[in-house]
Amino acid sequence: MNMRRWLTFVMTAVVMLATAPIEIRAETLACPSLNTAEQVGTCPSLRELRIMFRSTCGAAGNPNAPKPGMCDSFEDFQSHKNTVMWEAGDAGFMGYLPCTLPTEKIRTAQATELNLASSRRITKTACDYQGDLTLTLRRRGACALPSGASKGRLDCAGDPAACMVECE
User: Fold this and answer.
1) Which residue among 15, 61, 94, 116 has its CA within the 20 to 30 Å range from the CA of 149?
2) Per-residue 3-state assignment (H helix, E strand, C coil) for the chain
3) Alpha carbon of 122 to those of 32, 146, 151, 165: distances in Å?
């Protein structure tokens, strides 16, 4: 194929792609059930937590620590950092859940609230569950709550299946 034909072919392909209609499909995402959630990592050991505490806080009650409230005591730090990553649902919801909570409690927790927030082109969908558990999904594109929902928040404590969001 000579150069002229090749350039004509490339230009035709570019024009066809540029003028082709773009189909945007809406996708409904629901807060996943935790009964099929999977723990991804391992919980930190007491030794690992103490090392993290020293490197983050320096010492208990350090007023110069990056997050002084968490550094008031090792017990406060441990309650915040003794967590492990969990994943649930096909869409990729994930979150750090407490290692102190038995797996059975996590798996039986029901969705109570869905929160939606956007920053630039990323939408964050946070599903809150009983027991102060949260799984989050971050994705490109806009999402919207069903009509009648409060701005950015959907209360679905009475009907966990209603925790849904429509995304492009």
Assistant:
1) 94
2) CCHHHHHHHHHHHHHHHHHCCCCCCCEEEECCCHHHCEECCCCCCHHHHHHHHHHHHCCCCCCCCCCHHHHCCHHHHHHHHCEEEEEECCCCEEEEEECCCCHHHHHHCCEEEEEEEEECCEEEEEEEECCCEEEEEEEECCEECCCCCECCEEECCCCHHHCEEEEC
3) 20, 19, 17, 15
Domain limits, the chain: 23-41+84-168, 44-81
What is the separation of C-alpha 160 from the centre of its chain, rounded to a whole number of angstroms?
A: 18
Give me 130's structure tokens.
């009983």
Statement: the pTM of the whole predicted model exceeds 0.85: no
Report pLDDT digits (tens) over 126-154. Answer: 999 999 999 999 999 888 888 767 778 99
pLDDT digits (tens, 9 = 90+) for 51-66: 999 888 887 777 776 7
